[in-house]
Write a structure and sequence with these properties.
The structure is a single chain. The radius of gyration is 19 Å and the shape is globular. It is α/β, with parallel strands linked by helices and 240 residues long. Helices cover 41% and strands 17% of the residues. Helix 7 crosses helix 8. The chain contains 8 helices and 9 strands. The chain has 2 domains: 67 residues, no CATH class; 152 residues, Rossmann fold, CATH 3.40.50.
Length: 240
């Protein structure tokens, strides 16, 4: 949020943060409480609705019953965010599955810690899958949120090799724990630049979302905007 706030106030991103939504409420966790303080310091409207008030049937085998609380929850979420009329919703660190009803109403993009076509799931699951599959590259992407988890159309992405240095010797040693830590370190360093560069590109019309599809500045359908070079430049700046 800080990164996007800074970029929007330096005109790198032609837009503004109209609100912040959290599925936690004050008092649920120390980390989120600190985040809420930051949001308030920027005088950004903060909207909170704990999913714990709706979450039921964790052990229920009937998938339809399991989904009911999510639908009910998302309808309440919509009531709270609808007045802001957001052009785009950015999911970053949002660990709930969004119902079809909500993600089809708004253009939503999600940060996923793997390149296009890569593994789905949490960042831990994605990295372990990359190691298990002896993948050549790792990375991250921003994709449209759809009912199919982590498989919506790719808006933007970046990737990097995990076969050269400093990874090569750990592949040779089959040191999976060290590979896991290194891949996460390099992937995490690219997450913030990817988010801000994606929003910058969207705000400038370099890439657009139209009717659930991703198009370039010429209006042609694309399979994601490759921001690897620009992301690498930002990573190098941050290392100085």
């Amino acid at each position: 949020m800080q990164a996007v706030w800074d970029k929007s106030h330096s005109s790198d991103i032609n837009g503004k943060i109209s609100f912040v939504f959290s599925n936690r409420e004050p008092g649920e966790a120390k980390e989120s409480d600190l985040f809420f303080e930051l949001v308030r310091s920027y005088t950004i409207p903060l909207v909170c609705l704990s999913h714990k008030k709706f979450e039921t049937a964790k052990e229920e085998e009937d998938l339809d019953i399991k989904k009911k609380w999510r639908i009910k929850y998302d309808r309440e979420v919509n009531k709270r965010i609808e007045p802001f009329a957001p052009d785009l919703c950015v999911l970053a660190g949002y660990m709930l599955i969004v119902s079809a009803e909500l993600c089809q109403k708004y253009d939503m993009i999600n940060l996923h810690p793997a390149p296009p076509g890569g593994p789905t799931g949490s960042w831990q699951e994605a990295i372990w899958a990359l190691i298990q599959n002896k993948a050549e590259t790792a990375g991250a992407m921003m994709h449209l949120v759809t009912p199919e988890l982590d498989r919506g159309p790719v808006v933007s992405y970046c990737f990097f090799s995990i076969k050269g240095e400093p990874f090569a010797k750990y592949w040779q040693k089959n040191d999976k724990n060290m590979l896991f830590r290194l891949i996460r370190q390099h992937e995490l360093a690219r997450e913030f630049p990817l988010i801000t560069l994606t929003l910058q590109s969207l705000s400038r019309g370099e890439v657009s979302i139209k009717n659930g599809r991703v198009i370039d500045a010429q209006g042609k359908l694309i399979n994601g905007y490759n921001l690897s070079g620009k992301v690498d430049e930002e990573v190098k700046k941050n290392l100085k």
